[in-house]
Design brief:
The chain has about 400 residues and is of the alpha/beta class. It has 10 helices and 18 strands.
């Protein structure tokens, strides 16, 4: 209770000084040519303030504020790091594009904010329509747009100025398919799915890879179950003499928990459960109730507690905000620091070096063009193809 209250009070102070800090940072370096970076985060500042007055009382913040706020906090920590590294040629503008008085369209239409002179735009999106709006602006003004969080592409095509740091579902599925081919080709692979549009997309991707891998296809045969399936529907498929690989092609946490709780009592079986990239955010996987089951899922980020920088950032965050940082804090920090350094050194020519690990902070990137299926020479967007496989056993990442 005390921690939440302290965190709320500190957040209030951050909002009060937000505009002043950005303005001060800009004016302090106005003497020399600058490279402008525009950062967009869905903070929903109106949920906490009415004008300049803080309107929240008690020990909570609205849930819609936390993701954008945490990303913003990470960005600000990166700005501190850039300043400590004597990086003084950056002009950083941060926009809460979910403010009632500062919508995304209003920000774009405001010619006085200098957005069209930005060398790069960094965005944390929380819905697909916003991606299209900002991506169209990026293409029109030839400004690279870095999408740092989910959702993914938003249906973007023919836009060589749009960069996805989070690989698409297709790329994740391809990596999972190849991972099973490489490590579990002789195992008892059981592909579970359920009814749903997401699950249908996954099923189609796997079917596509089966059809194009004639020599070593997995020949996945989907087993469709409902969220409340009977345990025997799954356990009857297990083989006591083989490694059992349970591939769950679903976004449903309810389904995932049902699968894991069903398998947990079967200690004598060798079981590996492979889930979707969305499993990265399932807090239930941190528990030890699924003891003995190896759980694997994909992620474009690997924020290991054993990483020295992660440990340092976590300690600083707890000291400053009296709270544990989420992955969004690390994403904000890493994205701002990596691309801030790149822009600082190379300005308008930095786009060609976005995938260069010379500027690596925590995670590697493998940025590749995604070409249009029908127009082979047309680049629809750029995508990070680097995929990490996260392995959890007994609630701990191994």
């Amino acid at each position: 209770m005390k921690n939440k209250f302290t965190y709320t009070i500190i957040i209030a102070r951050i909002f009060i000084v937000l505009c002043f800090f950005i303005s001060f940072f800009s004016k302090a370096n106005a003497q020399q040519p600058k490279h402008r970076i525009a950062v967009f985060s869905p903070i929903y500042i109106d949920s906490a303030f009415k004008g300049d007055a803080y309107k929240l009382y008690g020990n909570y913040l609205p849930k819609n504020m936390l993701p954008g706020l945490e990303f913003y906090n990470g960005v600000m920590m990166a700005i501190d790091s850039l300043k400590s590294d004597s990086t003084s040629n950056l002009l950083v503008n941060i926009y809460d594009y979910k403010s009632k008085d500062n919508s995304l369209n209003e920000i774009i239409d405001d010619s006085a904010n200098g957005l069209d002179s930005a060398k790069v735009m960094i965005a944390s999106f929380n819905n697909r329509p916003d991606i299209k709006i900002l991506a169209d602006y990026a293409k029109q003004h030839q400004i690279p747009l870095i999408s740092a969080t989910y959702p993914n592409d938003g249906g973007i095509s023919n836009n060589p100025y749009f960069f996805l740091l989070n690989p698409t579902l297709r790329t994740h599925c391809k990596a999972i398919y190849q991972h099973i081919q490489k490590h579990y080709s002789t195992s008892n692979v059981i592909y579970l799915t359920r009814k749903g549009s997401f699950e249908t997309m996954v099923k189609n991707y796997f079917a596509e890879y089966d059809s194009t891998n004639l020599n070593n296809a997995l020949n996945l045969e989907p087993v469709t179950l409902v969220d409340t399936f009977y345990s025997q529907e799954l356990t009857s498929l297990l083989d006591s003499n083989q490694q059992n690989v349970i591939l769950c092609g679903t976004i449903s946490e309810t389904f995932a928990k049902k699968v894991l709780s069903t398998l947990s009592p079967f200690k004598k079986y060798k079981i590996t459960v492979i889930g979707m990239p969305t499993w990265d955010g399932m807090k239930s996987l941190e528990r030890q109730e699924y003891k003995g089951i190896e759980i694997i899922y994909t992620s474009p980020y690997n924020y290991s507690k054993n990483n020295k920088l992660i440990a340092s950032l976590t300690s600083k965050y707890k000291t400053k905000y009296n709270a544990k940082p989420s992955d969004l804090v690390f994403k904000g920090y890493e994205t701002m620091l990596r691309f801030g350094k790149t822009i600082s050194l190379y300005g308008a020519g930095a786009m060609q070096l976005f995938g260069d690990d010379l500027f690596k902070v925590i995670n590697s990137l493998d940025i590749q063009p995604v070409y249009n299926k029908d127009k082979k020479n047309q680049i629809d967007f750029y995508e990070n193809n680097k995929i990490y496989f996260i392995n959890r056993i007994d609630g701990t990442v191994k």
